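Structural prep section.
Before we set up the soaks we want a predicted structure of the protein with adenosine-5'-triphosphate in place, mainly to decide which crystallisation condition to try first. Input record follows.
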Amino acid sequence: MEVSDLSLKIGGAQILEDISFTVPTGEIVGVIGPNGAGKTTLFNLISGVMTPTTGRVVLDGRDVTNRSVTQRAVAGLGRTFQTSSVFPALSVEENVRLAAQVSEGRALSLFTFPRRGDRATSRARDLLGEVGLGDRMGFRAGDLPHGDKRKLEIAMLLATDPSVVLLDEPMAGVASGDVAGLTEVIRSLHTDHGCTVLMVEHHMEVLLGLVERVAVLHFGNLLAIDSPDAVMADPTVQSAYLGEPV
Ligand SMILES: Nc1ncnc2c1ncn2[C@@H]1O[C@H](COP(=O)(O)OP(=O)(O)OP(=O)(O)O)[C@@H](O)[C@H]1O
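Run finished without errors. Recording the tokens verbatim:
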């Protein structure tokens, strides 16, 4: 995935300015920065929720800058949001089955009842087993604890066979006892599914344990993108992000 010279101006406010970086296929990159730095806006521009004032977004060699959210999803871009986005009244299995049906180009309908051998159903069951929710398939999704909702969202993402995944604060609100399990599910996106992952996360221990590089945003500018050690040792990053050199 490549973004080049990506900028967003709203009214007189420069929200993001000339952001350029490349994430090679299969790499996990973390995105950090103080509140209001522009992390979610960057995800909105990459996923097509917002249109950049200037710049380009390239996925798998294809320029998708002028493509819609749906077209980018079809091109292999998946995303989770800061707030949970499961269908709360549906069962855990129904949530993933719908995602699998949509990715197969079938109707977003629950009136196709699950049958033995049905591809979307067996895919949903496999993925739920993989993320550790194999024993919760019949639960109402809205009743799951937050960490399991996050795992469910990842199973829904995987049902669409994404090549690039954007995760916006996946650990937000997750109970401390569920962090390790969810971390492993996120790791599997890259190790087992070969996904390219861009991840905003405030939980630094989790982030630094997962990512190969970290991008640091500050007031809409990209201060650095490098290995966690190099970024943490960077005096500009220390003074901007941590307040002062340490
Ligand atoms: N549609 C918009 N109109 C005007 N300003 C906006 C809009 N969207 C975002 N902003 C501003 O852009 C800046 C970046 O916001 P953004 O939500 O991307 O930051 P963030 O780094 O994700 O913050 P947080 O860590 O709090 O989620 C903020 O100052 C925000 O107020």
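Observations: The chain has one domain: 2-241.
Flagged for discussion at group meeting.
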